[in-house]
Amino acid sequence: MEPESILPASEPTPFGELPYEGFLTPSELWDQSFASVPKFKGIYQVLWNPAEKPRFLDQNPAGRFKGRDPSTPREELKAKWVEGASALFIAAAGGRGAKATLRSRIRSMIRFGRGEAVGHWSGHAVWQLVNPEDLMIAWSSMRSDPGEAERELLKQFEERYGALPFAN
Predict the structure, then answer these.
(1) Which residues contact residue 81 at a Cβ distance below 8 angstroms, ignoring those fewer than 6 apart?
(2) Binning pLDDT at 50, 70 and 90, where does residue 72 land?
(3) Residues 6-52 pLDDT 10s
(4) Domain boundaries defined on the chain
(5) Are 15 and 3 in contact (CB under 8 A)?
(6) Of 79, 166, 84, which Cα lies nearest the Cα of 122?
(7) Alpha carbon 136 to chain centroid, angstroms
(8) What distances in angstroms separate CA 18 from CA 44, 83, 126, 141, one per listed residue?
(9) b/e string for 6-25 if b means 16 or more Cβ within 10 A?
(10) Which helix (H) or strand (E) holds 157?
């Protein structure tokens, strides 16, 4: 897999060369009750237009799962930001022994982002952006182990950018 171009894209582009589909905002997915998201295992990414400069909220509006506040100090968020990257969060759904699907994980992530106390803590920093509704979510279904694909994508991303994606 070849990593994405170093040049900022004019629109969000997933990291890696898997065949991605979706490219929908959280609101679009919510409004369609996640019908377009497959009930298969795979990889999903939260994407951002890298030409935009990030702005962060003081408090994260995401859910308080088990009472835990997902807010992160702005300085920490700024330090974690990966300049020029479209992918803010890369994750696997399903895998060895896991029953999760792309639909169930993406649905949980967006419910969490909308303030519900559900268990999707990973990636919580994306919800502290000033306008998380501008984010796009893309996914790639797969028959092979998505955990292995996720590890490989994160390794390649870190080699490329010198850090993990912003919300990983």
Answers:
(1) 54, 166
(2) very high
(3) 334 445 788 888 899 999 999 999 999 999 999 999 999 999 999 89
(4) 21-161
(5) yes
(6) 166
(7) 8
(8) 10, 22, 22, 9
(9) eeeeeebbbbbebebebebe
(10) helix 146-161
Whether the pLDDT of residue 87 is over 50: the answer is yes
User: pTM for this structure?
Assistant: 0.90
Distance between terminal CA atoms of the chain? 20
State the residue for tokens 């896991």.
98
| Nearest C-alpha neighbor of 62 from the set 8, 137, 119, 5 | 119
Contact 71, 59 (CB under 8 A): yes
The pLDDT of residue 2: 38
- The tally of CA atoms less than 13 A away on the side-chain side of residue 134 is 14
Average pLDDT over residues 132-140: 95
> Closest Cα to residue 159, out of 120, 151, 110?
151
Q: In sequence order, what DSSP letters do the residues of 36-58 get, joined into one string?
A: TS-SS-EEEEEE--TTSPP-B-S
Distance CA 130, CA 56 (A): 5
